[in-house]
Amino acid sequence: MLRTLHTLLLAFVLAHTATAADFTPTAPSGPYRVGFHVRQQYDRARVYQHPRNPVTAQATSGDRSRPLQTLIWYPAIGTGGAMVFRDYASTVATEEEFSRMPDQVRRATDALVETRGPEVRHALQSPMHALRDAPERPGKFPVVIYAPSHSAYAVENADLCEYLASHGYIVIATPSLGPRSHAMTADLESAEAQAADIGFLVGYAHTLPQADTRRIAVVGHSWGSLASVLAAARDDRIRALVTLDGSLRAAYDYVNGGPRAAKYVTPERLGIPLLYMTRLQDEGAIGSELLARMRYGDVYLATLDAASHLEFSSWSQRMAPDAAFAGRTRAQVAQAYGAMARLVERFLDARLKNDAPARRQLDDALAANRPPPGFLSFVVHRAASAPPTLDTFLDQLGQQGFEHIAAIYERLHAQNPDLALGPLQAHEWGMKLLREHRAADAMQVFRLGVKLYPERFDFLYDGLGQAYEATGERDAAIANYRQALALEPGQMHARERLGALGVQ
Predict the structure, then answer these.
(1) What is the pLDDT of residues 179-219, one digit of tens each?
(2) Is residue 179 within 8 Å of residue 219, measured between CB atoms?
């Protein structure tokens, strides 16, 4: 199996050509045709434009909401408009100004590329795999949100997005915008703005008939990887992360639990698999604090045989001159990009689709201590346990039964003190179970409540009395009603129930 994996990967990375004009890193494509949509959307819950134009100081007209031009790659059928790379470049002109006319878009695109060399301008006519507005293929497909690097375009990795769509993913991207302008600043506010954009796209995915929203991953490049971690810590619908030469190593103080960090980024909220890909050979220097804290999810560490940050972006590879690649040929950087794309797809297949052959291929490579072609190292840090969260608590409770609630709670609370059952929560939970006619389960919840708070909160003893009464245990009900009155003599419900049971 490992030999098969190596053969496939080698064929994949060697299939690339050497010039900007015929850069095709995603070959061999998957079994699906790829469609491409552009959707002009606003996040109207957030303001973006200032009341006055920051350049002219004139009053801003039009919609001031946050513009989120949304690009969607998806498995398609039939035919659509054939695309060249310039079609992707032209989306840059409308990232913030949705109302631009075709001639304005053309001029803006010309201005974007006019300073490039002739070989790069020729590359703009390279045919792409995607078909503009091709019909969607019936079925359900996992969702990948792509998060671009600092202030980067949504088409920054269009080749990777096409490649993943050809392998059965819906890929959604939006530009990397700062809080109030296209240019980002290198601070937590900007990272959180992009994280909120990711959250918006997760919500948008729920409107797509093709999208299997039970399986969502985020792939982030550079600064986008920082935003993806913030997004995943806030949204447990994100089930896997991929970081491409991410800024976590340079900006880890925003996610390391320190004084400048986002307080919601905790190990418990990052209990999902992560593929951490970098060009650096010293893994101890790449955000090790975060990686060590992510102990509740499998963390794959992959070192790509790449010389520069540019090699993780197909926009950079297509649009940069040869001199930008630190002495490597364009064929070499295309090969590295192909190896990267293939490993991303295998990881997502294994961890998002739960594809058994893909998992075996990853496990075989790890067991043999032999990284895939194009990589210098490939290791995994396995999760220590399930994350001590409410979801894990409920999952284990559902599997083991309410009679084990105290043991499950105590074990998870010891791991994560923030996972705490308050007295009002315990009472509300127990009463809901009583209303669902699950008195035996309610009894276990109230028992845990009075164990946690034995000298306080009469309403917990009153609830336990109701649970015992519902199961026909009269003496135990009376004892708990009496304890409720001992803590609060004015406890009217307990007094009424004792009277109904014939007790003074």
Answers:
(1) 998 888 889 999 999 999 999 999 999 999 999 999 999 99
(2) no
